[in-house]
Amino acid sequence: MVSIVGAGPGDPELITVKAMKRIRQAEVILYDRLVNEELLEEAPGEAERIYCGKAPGRHAASQEDINRRLVAYAMQGKRVVRLKGGDPFVFGRGGEEALALAAAGIPYEVVPGITSAVGAAASASIPLTHRGLAASFACVTGSRCHEDGSPVRWDLLAHGVDTLAIYMGVSQLPYIREQLLLHGKAGSTPVALIEQGTTSRQRTFLCTLENMHELAKAVKLGNPALILVGEVVRLPGQLALLERNVSTRIG
Ligand code: SAH
């Protein structure tokens, strides 16, 4: 039996009860780079911990290799946990692993996790939807590696979706900006860049579609980071103002 488990967006407390149970019962854990290592301490001491991380642009273990190892450990009758950052089925390649397990006749389950767009938005106090401002949001990849198979429809996203949560976009900011401007999104559209969302190292920067690239360069934005585009990004400013008013009233 293999459990494909979401570890949540970074803060180790943002894992589900079910995911934690699976970690505590694991005999083998194959984990990714974005998994908070504190969670591994929850596994039994004798459990085997195998790092399968890929830094952007580099590959520690190929996906085929990971799939093969999952199958091999499961065949040995071990309780296998495949632990992934965020949610395994949101840009996590969990689907490919599920297919490989199914093809080998191995039973598996998927334990969802809080995806980083949801986690980072919450930590930055940015609601992904908001009455009157945003009736929809989309999770989008900013990585052009995906474009061979299923190209991102920036033309439709620029008009059809209110809030864009862009994953894997740090190295593609000029391209994302160009695409969204080309398809009619205003340069003044507010943008939040959220680095290491939900962790104690989180940095949040507010800017616009027009200047997000310069800002990211100036602050040396690193991975992992999420790009939120849309009017909802203005809300934390309003919330902060309200909080200040409340505290001056109370104070
Ligand atoms: N399955 C993961 C996504 C993996 S793709 C999930 O559901 O969240 C990797 C991308 O996720 C990164 O490039 C970054 O855009 C985003 N990401 C992951 N953790 C993050 C964090 N703590 N803060 C901001 N973005 C994060």
UniProtKB/TrEMBL annotation:
Family statement drawn from the similarity comment of this UniProt entry: Belongs to the precorrin methyltransferase family.
Enzyme class: transferase
NCBIfam families per the UniProt record, alphabetical: cobA_cysG_Cterm, PRK06136.1
Native organism taxonomy: Bacteria, Bacillati, Bacillota, Bacilli, Bacillales
Organism of origin: Paenibacillus ihbetae
Gene3D superfamilies: Cobalt-precorrin-4 Transmethylase, Domain 1 (3.40.1010.10), Methyltransferase, Cobalt-precorrin-4 Transmethylase, Domain 2 (3.30.950.10)
Residues making up the signal peptide according to the UniProt record: none
Keyword S-adenosyl-L-methionine on entry: yes
Name of the featured protein: uroporphyrinogen-III C-methyltransferase
Domain of life: Bacteria
Keywords assigned by UniProt, alphabetized: Methyltransferase, Porphyrin biosynthesis, S-adenosyl-L-methionine, Transferase
Coiled coil: none
